[in-house]
Description:
- The structure holds three protein chains of three kinds.
- Chain A is an alpha/beta fold.
- Chain A has helices spanning 36-52, 67-76, 94-108, 128-136, 189-197, 205-208, 243-256, and strands at residues 2-7, 9-11, 32-34, 55-61, 80-84, 113-117, 140-150, 153-159, 163-170, 173-177, 201-203, 222-228, 237-239.
- Chain A has one domain (2-219): Rossmann fold.
- Chain A is built from seven helices and 13 strands.
- In chain A, β8 and β9 form a beta hairpin.
- By secondary structure, chain B is of the alpha+beta class.
- Chain B folds into three domains: 7-119, Acyl-CoA dehydrogenase/oxidase, N-terminal domain (Butyryl-Coa Dehydrogenase, subunit A, domain 1); 121-228, Beta Barrel (Butyryl-CoA Dehydrogenase, subunit A, domain 2); 232-379, Butyryl-CoA Dehydrogenase, subunit A, domain 3.
- Chain B is 53% helix and 15% strand.
- Chain B has a four-stranded mixed beta sheet with strand order 1-4-5-8. In chain B, strands 2-3-7-6 form a four-stranded antiparallel beta sheet, with helices on one face.
- The radius of gyration of chain B is 21 Å and the shape is globular.
- Chain B starts with 6 loop residues before the first helix and ends with a helix.
- By secondary structure, chain C is of the alpha/beta class.
- Chain C has three domains: 2-56, 2-Layer Sandwich (Alpha-Beta Plaits); 65-249, 3-Layer(aba) Sandwich (Rossmann fold); 278-394, Rossmann fold (3-Layer(aba) Sandwich), CATH 3.40.50.
- In chain C, 25% of the residues lie in helices and 27% in strands.
- In chain C, the strands form six sheets. In chain C, strands 11-15-10-5-8-9-16 form a seven-stranded parallel beta sheet, sandwiched between helices.
- In chain C, β2 (25-28) and β3 (31-34) form a beta hairpin.
- In chain C, α7 (292-302) runs parallel beside α10 (380-394).
- Chains in contact: A-B, A-C.
- The interface between A and C is large, with 88 and 93 residues.
- β12 of chain A pairs antiparallel with β14 (209-215) of chain C, so a sheet runs across the interface.
Amino acid sequence: MRIVACIKQVPETTEVRVDPKTNALIREGVKSVINPFDENAVEAALQLREAHGGEVIAISMGPPQAEEALRHALAMGADQAILLTDPAFRGGDTLATSYTLAAAVRKLGEVDLIVCGKQAIDGDTGQVGPGLAERLGLPQVTFAIGLEISDHRLRARRVLDDFFEIVEVRLPAVVTVVKQINEPRYPSMRNVLKAKRAEVAKWSVAELEADTSQTGFDGSPTTVIKVWPPERRSGGRRLEGPVEEVVDTLAEAIKELNLAAG
Amino acid sequence: MDFTFSQDQQAVLDAVKEFADGELAPKARETDEAGVWPAENVRKLAQLDLMGIPVPEEYGGLGMDFLTWAAVGEELSRACTTTGAVYGAHVLCVYPIMTFGTDDQKTRLLTPLARGEKVGAFGLTEPGAGSDAGAVSTRAERDGDHYLLNGTKIFISNGGEAEVYVIIANLDPSRGARGMTAFIVEKGTPGFTFGKDEKKMAYPSLPNRELIFTDCRVPKENLLGREKGGFLVAMRTLGVGRIGMAIGAVGLARAALEAAVPYAKQREQFGKPISSFEAIQFMLSDMATEIDAARLLTWRAAWLKDQGRPFEKEAAMAKLFAAETAMRVTTKAVQIFGGYGYTKEFPVERYMREAKLFEIVEGTSEIQRLVIANHVLRELGG
Amino acid sequence: MAVRLLVEKCTGCRLCLRACPYNAIEVIEDRARFNDNCTQCGACASSCKFGAILLEVTFTREVDTSQYRGVWVVAEHLHGELRRGTYELLGEGRRLADKRGAELSAVLLGDQIEGLAPRLIAHGADRVYLAQDPVLAHYRTGPYADVLAGMINQHRPEIVLVSATPQGRDLAPRVAARVSAGLTADCTGLDIGEEGLLVQTRPAFGGNLMATIVCRQARPQMATVRPGVMKALAADPARAGEVVSVPVHLDERGVLAKIVEIVQQEGDGQVNLQDAQIIVSGGRGLGKAESFALIRELAQALGGAVGASRAAVDAGWIPAYHQVGQTGRTVQPKLYIACGISGAVQHLAGMGSSDVIIAINKDPSAPIFNIATYGVVGDLFEIVPALTKKLKEML
């Protein structure tokens, strides 16, 4: 089986700070890590490889330092890692990102499964997986909490609002996974050392034969015009005194909300 | 003099730290209080290739040096002392087989030990042979294709759970220590049974068992090294053990310091955090300095060993100093926590109980002082 | 975006004919041909096994934006009922359409759901595009995306809003990629800006950063919208509107995903937690499983759902379905009553955007009091039953 895991390097914490003067994100002192959902994706790919044989190829679109995230995937046990990096890929929204990733997957040739994390913890869109599936003309299975493959068919358990959906598609397909699907493994020392020495291939516009009008900022229909830190919620009234008084106040407050039952 | 680790070493240490902090530390209390063998943790150590760091790759190990093995042990010990103790005791079986074993023994036994498929233990101590290691009285007698072992070992770490044991017996008691002989005895060998597991001041989940040999038939293929060459095996193994104990003590001391500092910063008395009081600052300063000194002593001893240079004195110094440092640091940590430090709610009382072990096991502090004195008297003039 | 037929590769196998929802393909003399019904929806492209149909997804800045008019809301239904988010989107969509001087249309896909159309009109829609087919009975990405993409290409709405439910977040990016539209995820604020553009506001970095986004050249401007934030209009049964039936014909054989089974999550099924307007939650302070009875009674008196903190779920007092928080679900009720919950960051991540929060906890330093609208330091075992009793008298 040839499985591609799409990963992204993100800041370690979502506790971000914005420089009040420039309105830009303050990145100093913030470590970069592999997107946690993508770690689950790599783990899912590795488990499928263990069950069915084959190889796991980790790919990522990002700046040169995103190589670290790919090395983490290698240390977990991925067989190959490819970094899609080029100034022309910068500033891309999810449409441009899915274009670039799709070009890379096509270049890899025959692939049985593409696994992505549900969403990146910085962008929080969850749009790249389905966009990638659309561009490759493949079925998509989102919010997967369980995966099984037999006979070139994928059976997945999806977690939706208050029910699970068991769905089946023929491979190849694109899957996005939720955190509860597995516990990503800690890298073994052998793989850590192997990952250190491994070549991470770097593909640019040339290798992908990409149309730069579709990549990066140029290929993005959406534009961010402003970022700002949200207003923090603060505490309101403290109610004190005998139980009956407190309860009366609460009941009044609830009545005023004028909520229809159910 | 470059005190930094190589890139490979650092990569390994970073990965181990993540594992130790993420997986071992959060359940360290549970692991300790459960009172049972930490099977899950040991399994994870094996999965992460941590059970055979210094073993050559051809025998399933990583082929790295003892300094790396020690630095890894420090992180494991810091996160979970029980797991660190299992890791340390395991190498006392790995090392002698690696060093004195035949090719056959290495293939048969070293490889599964290095892969963590089997756990190892080292049996030297007897009821009558503690500091007086030469007084080993477990008897070995040649009997055709076998050796017959009779006797008991006590306080053996990993005892009962380990599948492979390096046992020091005596083939010729008339020659005292010169009759000592090393054997590899596998669990399940007829005549090899387990006695009681000691209830100790600390480490309830670390087995320290009695090993009982009753006409135990050990095949001649399991003689480790030469007949009557066991003293050397024991001494060399204890040398490694000293480094292991030292670094375990350093890890424990670090855990205590890392608990004490945040506590001191948030605990307020007299309107201020206690970390602003000089008395506390001086304590923390001494703790940090001694830990660093103990660590560097241990690294130096491991480095010497890796260079193939004599390291007996340096290992003894490291073990002596690290053990006593751990005792001082953990005691101070309890003191900093005050009343709360005496309760089971915080881990420092456990650290203090655990620290005492290091002053006794693998050669008491008194023995270490004798070893060091011997060297000093020899080396310095007059 | 274009669908191109490479006639030389076509073998006349008719798979594309089956896949086409709009009866736009004929096979004449063993070759496929597209007729005027074609909406460029792209359904045929993935069905062809011979590479004879190409779907080109190309983003271009040359779109004539003046050709696009109207605000669309993609309706979502579950168990035969419209979901709360749909009503909210109609309320917001109405406001945006009025500001833009345009019409508001709802898009309703399904099977035998025409009965829901009047409700969409009553809640603000001028028009309902109704596409029905047995294949659309249960949501699957393929058929829904094919039909919606075709309708977008045919009718050219300027704005398309989708509720950011799992279904919406599965469908919208697929369709957006299909029609090369700009899509913004999980919006918490929408407006029409100076240039007549849809101004989209949304949280990033787990809510620690807000971003404002526009889509200048691509059309339609698409957005998924966080449920529980926008305001629905009160139903006005007298509102006039038209229902437009969109004829679609789908073939189950062309659908790539088969739903094998639906498994309800174990939980107090009385009120759907995700869409609930009122949630009463219990945490570690309850002490034992049986104490959840107090929570259930209060929830029942209010007609709300039962939630729980991770501590309560981990302790086995209540099924995981009820867990609210970072590793559980994120809820947006109008009223959230937290009983015996300390308010760890992970729990707050799941309920912090509730309109009104009432916290009852005996620990005055519990972090939840930092965000509670009304904070009660007291014994929940006294207060909760007393509140339940009082509410039953009042309501």
